[in-house]
Amino acid sequence: MKGILPLFLFGYLSTVSGTILWDGRFNNYTTATDFDQWSWSNQVGTYQTYIYGNQHGETASSWLTLGSQYKNPATTGEKQGVKVKINATSTWNGGPMLRTELLPQTTNSLTGHLYFHVSLQIPTVNPPDPAYEHQIVFWEGHYADIKYGQLSGQNGVADTLQVITGGESIWSVQPVRGTWYNFILEVGSPGGLWVSTGSNALQKVYTGSLNGNGGTDWHVGALRLPINGNAQQINETDLYYSGVYVEDSGPTTQP
Ligand SMILES: *[C@@H]1O[C@H](CO)[C@@H](O)[C@H](O)[C@H]1NC(C)=O
Ligand SMILES: *[C@@H]1O[C@H](CO)[C@@H](O)[C@H](O)[C@H]1NC(C)=O
Ligand SMILES: *[C@@H]1O[C@H](CO)[C@@H](O)[C@H](O)[C@H]1NC(C)=O
């Protein structure tokens, strides 16, 4: 019996983490200026960085800051996280939305039954204005979105962090500023949502399709919608992200 138990535990542990298909944990980045190396003709690093306010000669690193203070301290597989900033000049290609977003740079299609990991924090300093809809993690097809704030065209859910798929909110909280929220978006079949805070193990809070099977057009960052199409007053607004990666099985439930 004494000999069998450790073998059993080893076998169990070895099945709970999968192969990492894409690792966006910023370990290959020294400072945010490394993000500026990426372009459509020089697709280096682990992130595509083309969505940010670019009307006044800004670069990706005008909006992104790396640092250990921007990661979930419970995560061990990374040295730093990223602070994503928007302000009134965050208009990308002249559009009305305020945007700073990161997307995976990878030759892997990132499709199938996969686990997309991301931890994020609504910070105590420069938090997003709850009066506005912020799309803060989403696929371009918007089949599953993490959002914060008053949804465009709706009332009464302003200070809310939620996950929406198929037009339905499948998880929501009034977020505590300065707290890390850990998510796994399980795409493909069966699909689902895993959530925890801080250093707690992620637990499956929703089982069901997220209406998509992944893909590389996955946006991590701040997109603030205008209200009634008007230019809006805004001070610096920040979101922090860490623990961003995609694995093919498991999932790993430690943040
Ligand atoms: C990250 O750095 C490691 C070590 O230098 C290297 O093997 C790996 O290819 C790099 N990955 C990317 C995506 O640049
Ligand atoms: C907005 O942020 C950009 C990029 O960091 C900066 O150049 C600009 O001065 C900021 N605008 C204001 C009003 O602070
Ligand atoms: C911007 O910050 C200033 C100084 O804290 C504050 O007076 C003002 O109301 C803020 N504006 C918005 C749109 O939040």
Could you name the key traits of this structure?
255 residues; mainly beta; Jelly Rolls; eight-stranded antiparallel beta sheet; seven-stranded antiparallel beta sheet; 1 helix; globular; disordered N terminus; binds 2-acetamido-2-deoxy-beta-D-glucopyranose; GH131_N; Glycoside hydrolase 131 catalytic N-terminal domain-containing protein; signal
In words, what does this structure look like?
The chain is mostly beta strands. The protein has one domain: Jelly Rolls. The chain is 5% helix and 36% strand. The protein has one helix spanning 4-15; strands at 20-23, 47-52, 64-67, 81-86, 98-104, 115-121, 134-139, 144-148, 161-165, 168-173, 180-186, 192-197, 203-207, 218-224, 237-247. Strands 1, 3, 4, 6, 11, 12, 13 and 15 form an eight-stranded antiparallel β-sheet that branches. Strands 2-5-14-7-8-9-10 form a seven-stranded antiparallel β-sheet, with no helix packed on it. The longest helix is centred in the N-terminal third of the chain and has 12 residues, at 4-15. The relative contact order is 0.23. The model is unreliable at 1-15 (pLDDT under 50). One 2-acetamido-2-deoxy-beta-D-glucopyranose binds at residues 233-235.
Outline the fold blueprint.
Layout: H1 4-15, E1 20-23, E2 47-52, E3 64-67, E4 81-86, E5 98-104, E6 115-121, E7 134-139, E8 144-148, E9 161-165, E10 168-173, E11 180-186, E12 192-197, E13 203-207, E14 218-224, E15 237-247
Antiparallel strand pairs: 1-15, 2-5, 3-4, 4-15, 5-14, 6-11, 6-15, 7-8, 7-14, 8-9, 9-10, 11-12, 12-13
One 2-acetamido-2-deoxy-beta-D-glucopyranose is lined by residues 233-235.
Signal peptide: 1-18
InterPro entries: GH131_N
Keywords: Signal
